[in-house]
Amino acid sequence: MPSDFEVTGPYEKFVLFGTAHLITIVLTILVPLGLVFLGRRSARADAIIRWGFVVLILGGWISWYALFIARGWLGIGNILPVNLCDWAMIALLIALIRKSPRAYELAYAWAIAGTVQGIVTPDVNYSFPEPQFIIFMLTHADIVAGVLYLTFGTRLRQTPDSIPRVIAWTLGYGVVAGLTDWILGTNYGFLRAKPTHATLYDLLSPWPYYLLEVVAIGIAAVFLLYLPFYLLDRFSRPDRPAAVTSPTS
Fold first, then answer.
1. N or C: which end of the chain has fewer CB within 10 A?
2. Please, are residues 103 and 94 in contact by the beta-carbon 8 Å criterion?
3. What is the pLDDT at residue 9?
4. Of 124, 134, 29, 136, which is closest to residue 89 (Cα–Cα)?
5. Helix (H, G, I), strand (E, B) or coil at 193
6. Cα first-last separation, the chain
7. What are phi and psi of 59, to 5 degrees?
8. Helix segments in the chain, DSSP class H
9. Residues of 24-40 as b/e, b for ≥16 C-beta within 10 angstroms?
10. How far is the C-alpha of 42 from the C-alpha of 58, rounded, in Å?
11. Which residues are paired to 181 by β-bridges?
């Protein structure tokens, strides 16, 4: 989302880790964990919660396009679903609807490693209640919250064989985003330039060298994100195998 889009109105400038930002971060964690207790009570409650997330995510996606169309911001650089958050959203929708382990493992990795960065360092100009802030934060928060609910509420999880699949899919995303950028001259996946707002990319080397660093960090993140499940298997169930291969779905 281009950071130079300006709007008129009585809105305060966005402040990183300001009140509205911190409240969003806290709610992104607390709301899904609270829903876990409801979802575990019955299959009906679980289904209502999962479909509730589906409605919120699709509603946020549609609202994002509606806002950009209304403000004349929609262009070739943001109209296509070629951001990693878009792919995380699609994987999450499949996981929410079908409780698919294969879709979950992608949504989990991409949401925690990627979408979380969008929440921590959002590309918005103005704070609550400006519509861009609300839609951006709600959409990203819904992705992370949905993954947290599936993890703790439905007990979907990653397994050792998730690791090569997630790496392969992520590299595949990089190829698709790279080809799109090369053909259309866009910057999906931030493969042609770093974000214009403050992000963790600022700590990396200049283009194109940071691309190799991003690949290395991404692969390391996949292993790191599996670590909690490994430790859970290792120390809470020492009499069982380290993990069970996820069913095909």
1. C
2. yes
3. 63
4. 136
5. coil
6. 33
7. -65, -40
8. 19-39, 43-70, 84-98, 101-110, 116-120, 131-153, 162-184, 209-236
9. bbeebeeebeebbeebe
10. 25
11. none
* Average pLDDT score, the chain: 91
Q: Is the pLDDT of residue 102 over 50?
A: yes
Q: Are 181 and 149 in contact (CB under 8 A)?
A: no
CB 40 within 8 A of CB 222: no
Tokens 């991404």: give the residue: 218
Place of tokens 């990627």: 114
By C-alpha distance, which of 114, 102, 96 is closest to 165?
Answer: 102
Give the mean model confidence (pLDDT) for residues 203-232.
96
Evaluate whether 85 touches 62 at the Cβ level (below 8 Å).
no
pTM: 0.89
Answer yes or no: are the C-beta atoms of 226 and 160 closer than 8 Å: yes
Q: Is 202 helix (H, G, I), strand (E, B) or coil?
A: helix
Q: CA Rg, the chain, in Å?
A: 19
> 24-74 pLDDT, tens per residue?
999 999 999 999 999 999 999 999 999 999 999 999 999 999 999 999 999
